[in-house]
Write a structure and sequence with these properties.
The chain has about 280 residues and is an alpha/beta fold. Helix content is about 40%, strand content about 20%. The chain has helices at about 15-30, 55-60, 65-70, 80-90, 105-110, 125-135, 145-155, 175-190, 205-215, 250-260; strands spanning about 35-40, 45-50, 100, 115-120, 140, 160-165, 195-200, 220-230, 240-245, 270-275.
Length: about 280
């Protein structure tokens, strides 16, 4: 499990979907002034260089964020404009897109004084990088298993909760572990907003996640799946997100975002949005 490094995959089409959903959900929650406790169970590093040897080896960003970047002025959705504006801030005065934010960086970028961000990471190298960065932005980093750490931290002192969980799923039991953790977390904080990412692979192991959630008491589970038009020889053919307790109006706004991003001249993917579990 500790062999996975997101630097090889930063900015790919799955990140576009994942971080688009994360940013939209958090911005919508912040329409109210009350504090939000944000948790990232598998944080990785905060910022990734798209020109690094690791990123260049897989070149996954080319079919992801780099496919959208040239059209950032033409993207019609106000929600994409907010996403791209933050991405520009990650890159500072650089003309080219060379830096991409990991999920803790997106959370920290939107953090208000009353909000908190807690990032869990097990990989020792990633934790070191994350801790160095976190000291400059005022978020908490915990070097421990994020699923166990999340349950120990619930319920939070803040009145509202946002959780992102996106393991690598290198170990098949992670589908079960994620489902069990999310169910327990929901039971402790039924008002919380939970975002769960999963890969779409040939073996369709993500259906284990579906089965566990649909058999539980959890309600209001929105499912987003982004499927590539051209299936790669190996790896993911698509990317999925489950959003439990999405903010009111999230469904329509996220549908518009992904429809705009998935066009043939951008991500070249199709997007489907439905309710895995209705209210």
């Amino acid at each position: 499990m500790l062999s996975y490094l997101h630097a090889f995959h930063a900015g790919n089409f799955a990140d576009v979907q994942k971080h688009g959903a994360l940013l939209l959900a958090l911005r919508m929650m912040q329409a109210k002034d009350s504090a939000i406790a944000c948790f990232d169970t598998h944080a990785g590093s905060a910022l990734y260089r798209l020109d690094s040897d690791q990123a260049q080896k897989t070149d996954e960003a080319r079919r992801g964020i780099q496919a959208l970047w040239p059209d950032r002025q033409q993207l019609l959705s106000g929600d994409w404009k907010a996403f791209m504006a933050q991405l520009e801030r990650f890159n500072g005065s650089r003309a080219a897109l060379s830096h991409y934010g990991g999920s803790p960086a997106w959370m920290a970028a939107l953090k208000r004084p009353q909000d908190t961000v807690t990032a869990f990471e097990l990989h020792p190298t990633e934790t070191g990088k994350l801790s160095d960065w976190a000291a400059t932005v005022g978020i908490q980093v915990r070097h421990q298993d994020g699923l166990r750490g999340l349950l120990k931290a619930l319920p939070p002192s803040a009145p509202r909760l946002l959780v992102l969980t996106d393991p690598s799923y290198e170990i098949k039991t992670e589908y079960r572990d994620v489902a069990e953790t999310v169910i327990k977390a929901w039971q402790r904080c039924r008002h919380g907003v939970f975002l769960v990412w999963y890969p779409i692979l040939p073996k369709q192991d993500h259906h284990r996640l579906f089965s566990a959630l649909t058999a539980s008491e959890v309600t209001k589970v929105l499912r987003s799946e982004l499927t590539l038009a051209e299936t790669p020889d190996r790896g993911m053919s698509g990317s999925g997100m489950l959003v439990i307790n999405p903010p009111w109006g999230f469904e329509e706004r996220f549908r518009a975002m992904m429809s705009e991003a998935g066009t043939a001249d951008r991500l070249n993917a199709t997007h489907q949005l439905d309710w895995l579990v209705p209210e």
